[in-house]
# Entry
Amino acid sequence: MYREGTLAGPVSIGDEHRRMENYKKTKIVEKPCLHPFTNLPPDIIEMKVKDGSKIRNLMGYAISKMELDSVRQILFTGSGKAVSKTITCVEIMKRRLKELHQITKVLFKQIEEIWEPIVPEAGLDTLTVKRNIPAICVLLSKDALNPQEPGYQAPGSFDAFCIETLSAESQGQVKRKHGGGRGAGSTGKHPHFTGGAPREPCAKS
# Structure
């Protein structure tokens, strides 16, 4: 029978590695967040982009729907490593279908990682590691949206938001490849997002 513990507090990379080398990650739980958009149609199409999603498959479906006169809006969402892929999908959509209004919201989502001992007989506790990861929600609309809404972009607008976000994601990946990444339970800075969209808080469960 395992006791549940929480990995917290500042630890060095070496200490963290030695602590976690006896564990394996068995589960990831996404905690619910407050949706940054309100009053969306209940039947709106939401494209939930994942790290392993194929852009060709996502965009084939999304474009076919948005080309219908009856479909006026579409929502793209992604978190963690899928943020840059979500932005790519949005840019492809905007270049394929002109005159789309856009509102971008950036937020942080909390996830919990469950780590269990590799050798149960060692008497180690099961650990719950909490992380905050960046997430993005982008609303595209054929109809006009409120230009005063934070994160609004007019049709045909391709500002620095996406470029800077993609750059931050790429730099983070390069650092991780060179050993600058962080293991489970560590704390540090999240990718810095700029542009008109404010960060939204996550809901506390």
Notes: The radius of gyration is 20 Å.
